[in-house]
Amino acid sequence: MKFNWQGALIGPTDRVVDALSVIDRELTRAAFVIDDKSRLIGLVTDGDIRRGLLAGISLEDEVKSVMNSSPLTCGDTDSHIAVRRLMEAKDFLHMPILDASGRLVNVLSMQDHVDRERYENPVFLMAGGFGSRLHPLTANCPKPLLRIGQKPIMETILDSFIDAGFYRFYISTHYLSDMVKEYFGDGSRWGVDIQYTHEDRPLGTGGALGLLPDDLPSEPMIMMNGDILTKVNFERLLDYHQESQADATICVRQHEYQVPYGVVQANDLEIQSIDEKPISRYYVNAGIYVLNPDVVRQVKEGEVIDMPSLLNSQIEKQSKIMMYPLDEYWLDVGRMSEFEQAQQDIAGLFP
């Protein structure tokens, strides 16, 4: 039975027997006590009720007489994986999620964690670049290990995938590869599997595909640069790719460029129009791809190739290449200004 926290809401003046009825009906093993503005003011479990009855509380008494008025909660900006780790550490079955005003907006259940879908799709993270534009920060540290907030950039990426149910990871390395491997290891620290490819020389943004093992899972693979912060919904991205029956899907971001002058349109020397500081809009590559196995196998071991060249060659072969416009937060941490922006953004996005 799916966990239905909305069915387990009660008010502070409801009776203890009402709380018991809710817990029994919804199989939640807890009822969540809210005020008239949906703010959480307490939590009551079947254990709280039993202890109350032993202490002389009546089933007709108000539930506030037995509720825990200071339950442990998490915020709606906390990552689900961080919440689940806290629940596991505390041996909690559920965790109330509050917004900034204290309103109950969700309740995460450990049962949902156990039952959530696990994706067999491999995830390929690119971590081999030199990060030259972030020098001197990258002089002795590979860019994916630069800390944004409390974690390296790529650990935040890894957490996002794990939170969505992915557990098969491959990491491409080149520059300071030993540091990347030492930090992430085999993935057991996160309860996932991590394998590595290594470029002896730079192979372009797509060449590392040729280094992947032959026994990859047969599902589409998500490939992503290891220096991107994003809130993209990976499950929805995969669904879009499969529903589109695409051979490859590239995530894109709309980029605007404003010409700082008036643009003159003319026929010979006769002016037809003047457009003052026009704005041009383009879709640009966001560094996140979904690739079918046939596309991955197009890259041979040791081949130097960039992703645009690979995808263009697939278009020439009549392959179906789709784009997936990103509306979610996205930041390519490639330059110092973006690195500084990421430090400001991280707390509200990936606590």
Attribute tags:
alpha/beta, 3-stranded mixed β-sheet, 11 helices, 19 strands
Fold topology:
Elements: E1 9-10, H1 16-26, E2 30-34, E3 40-45, H2 46-54, E4 74-75, H3 80-90, E5 94-98, E6 104-109, H4 110-115, E7 123-126, E8 147-148, E9 151-152, H5 153-164, E10 168-173, H6 177-184, E11 193-198, H7 204-207, E12 221-225, E13 228-230, H8 234-243, E14 248-258, E15 262-267, E16 270-276, E17 279-291, H9 293-296, H10 307-316, E18 321-325, E19 330-332, H11 336-349
Parallel strand pairs: 1-2, 4-5, 7-10, 7-12, 10-11, 14-18
Antiparallel strand pairs: 2-3, 5-6, 8-9, 12-17, 13-19, 14-17, 15-16
Quick rundown:
This protein has 351 residues and is of the alpha/beta class.
